[in-house]
Structures are given as structure tokens and as C-alpha cells.
Write a structure and sequence with these properties.
- The protein has a three-stranded antiparallel β-sheet, with no helix packed on it.
- The protein is built from 13 helices and three strands; from the N terminus they run αααααααβββαααααα.
- It starts with a helix and ends with a helix.
- The longest helix is centred in the first third of the chain and has 21 residues.
- Helices cover 54% and strands 3% of the residues.
- It is mainly alpha-helical.
- The protein folds into three domains: 79 residues; 121 residues, Intergrase catalytic core (hpI Integrase, Chain A, Orthogonal Bundle); 63 residues, no CATH class.
Length: 308
């Protein structure tokens, strides 16, 4: 292990002790240090940081900025230990964050995605991705939370799912509908009958019996999306697997409105279910949804008609 690699390990350990996960940062730093080693360099400079940052030429400027910000945080740590290391200025590659427009799946589109899993190779892989898509759609879980589920986190007897080690370091329990419990029970029968079922304690496993890998899930979802015939609705609105979470949030509010419930005081419940620390973090999932705007218009019209 080189000196820089040792410093990187110490840096990641310190920041993780403060609550940061840094899974992507760890991979990027490893790539950056490999780049330095291949070029015979043993210190961070603005020049080599920018050279590595711009290596992928067919990506967005925001991805360049994110790569540089990862190096910059590490360089700040190194500079405090030894001033020979240079810290890239924050405004060298300004990062413009543009949120994607949520793609709100219809029920038929979700069914189409689940049917498309039949084109995957092997019964277990088909069942795994069919279960994953269904679970994301009915719980609003994050993809990372779903693939981190272990068998002890699933209590089918009580109809309860425990989500641990979330984005904000919290643990929450999700009550499941009886149809979801039934579907999970059927999947576990297929999973446990597989020859490599004992390799991992994960609920959702690959044909090798290992836990699903985040990037592989996204790659497979793109394949399923094409098979299901889903197309972008605009340049900024493309069907992503994360949008199943948006769909769950919007559909929950629609159900509350249609049931005649007072939605505002129930927003903290939705935030808790989604794993947010505050209701304001949930509002992004609800903005500009045509269905919600239609109901808002109806409520406003009713309120105006009630005025004397």
C-alpha cells in the first residue's frame, strides 16, 4: 500500500465515523490514485486532478464537477497533513445540479416491466427482478435499501420489513400489504430452492447466490425498460428505476385525496415511510405531478364556490 493509499484509507475511515457512507467516493478515489501511480506521481496537484477528472470525455459537465469535488475533499484533508498537496479551487468546474423530471409510471407500465423480466435468463433472475420492481413500486424504497435487505429484515409472519442503514443512517419498519407478503413468500421459495441459495444472506440474490450489485441492477433495468417499450416523455423525463419511488409517493397522496382524508397532517407519515428526515425532503417527489395538480385545482374551485 502506497502512502497516498494509506492516507485515503484514513480519510475514508474518519469521514465514515462522522456518518458519511462514501461508497462512490471510495471507488473514485481508488481510480484517481491508480491514475497517479500509473503516471509516477505521488502528490495531489491541480493539474493532475483536472487531468483525471476530464478522462471520461462523453459525460456531462456535472459528472466532471462531481469527480473533482471528490478529489478536492481528499486534497483538503491531505493539505492539512502536508502543504505540498494542492487543493483544486471550488469554482474550476462549477457544478450545476439539474434534477431529472420524474417519470410517473402508470400501473400498466409497471406490469409491462414485470412481464419483461420473463426475457431474462434463468428462473431465479426472472423472479429476482420481478420481485425487486414490485417491491420498489409498493414500498417506495430506494434501490440501495432493497438490495441490502437480509433475511432477518423480512418478517412475513407479521407482514413487516425492516430497512437498516439508510441514506441518513436511520432504521425504519415498513408494514406490508398481504399481497406483497404473498409475493415475497413465493419469491423466497424460488430463491431457497436455488443451488447457490446459501452463498449470501441477502433477500434478493443473483444466479451466483450473491447480493445484487447496484450498477448491474441499473443495467438490467435499462434492458427491461427497452423490452417493455417504455420511451422518454421528453429530453429531461426518462423512465428510471428511481422513479418507482416517485410513483409511490404520488400514488399515496392520490389515494388519500380520493378517500377524502386531510392530507397535510399525514405528510410526516409519508416522509417517515420513505425514510426522509423532514417532510420538506418529500416535496420534491410530489411537485408538478399532473394528477396532483388536477386535484389541487378541484379543491381550489370547491373552496371558491363555497365563498359567499
Amino acid at each position: 500500500m502506497t502512502t497516498l493509499q494509506q492516507h485515503a484509507a484514513d480519510y475514508l475511515r474518519i469521514r465514515r465515523a462522522l456518518g458519511f457512507k462514501l461508497e462512490r467516493a471510495e471507488k473514485l478515489l481508488a481510480q484517481y490514485l491508480a491514475f497517479l501511480d500509473a503516471n509516477g506521481q505521488d502528490r495531489v496537484t491541480i493539474a493532475n486532478a483536472l487531468a483525471w477528472t476530464r478522462l471520461p470525455g462523453n459525460v456531462s459537465a456535472s459528472w466532471w464537477a462531481f469527480r473533482l469535488s471528490t478529489v478536492r475533499c481528499f486534497a483538503t484533508y491531505l493539505h492539512a497533513l502536508d502543504p505540498v498537496h494542492e487543493v483544486p479551487p471550488a469554482d474550476v468546474l462549477p457544478r450545476r445540479i439539474r434534477r431529472a423530471v420524474p417519470y410517473l409510471y402508470t400501473e400498466n407500465e409497471i406490469w409491462a416491466l414485470m412481464i419483461a423480466t420473463g426475457q431474462l435468463r434463468g428462473q431465479l433472475r426472472q423472479a429476482t427482478y420481478r420481485t425487486l420492481i414490485g417491491l420498489l413500486a409498493v414500498t417506495g424504497m430506494r434501490v440501495g435499501e432493497a438490495i441490502r435487505l437480509d433475511r432477518p429484515d423480512l418478517d412475513l409472519t407479521r407482514g413487516l420489513l425492516t430497512v437498516r442503514d439508510t441514506k441518513f443512517g436511520k432504521t425504519r419498519e415498513l408494514p406490508l400489504h398481504h399481497t406483497t407478503v404473498t409475493a415475497l413468500g413465493r419469491y423466497l421459495q424460488v430463491r431457497d430452492a436455488h443451488e447457490h441459495a446459501d452463498v449470501s444472506d441477502a433477500v434478493l440474490i443473483s444466479p451466483a447466490g450473491t447480493r445484487l450489485i447496484y450498477c448491474n441492477v441499473h443495467a438490467t433495468f435499462r434492458q427491461l425498460r427497452a423490452e417493455a417499450g417504455l420511451r422518454p416523455r421528453s429530453t429531461g423525463c426518462r423512465p428510471r428505476i428511481h422513479d418507482l419511488r416517485h410513483r409511490f409517493a404520488v400514488q399515496t397522496l392520490l389515494d388519500w385525496y380520493l378517500d377524502g382524508l386531510d392530507v397535510q397532517p399525514r405528510l410526516p407519515l409519508l416522509s417517515t415511510y420513505l425514510g426522509h428526515t423532514h417532510p420538506r425532503h418529500t416535496y420534491w417527489y410530489l411537485q408538478a405531478a399532473p394528477e396532483l395538480l388536477a386535484i389541487a385545482g378541484q379543491l381550489l374551485e370547491t373552496a371558491q364556490e363555497a365563498r359567499p
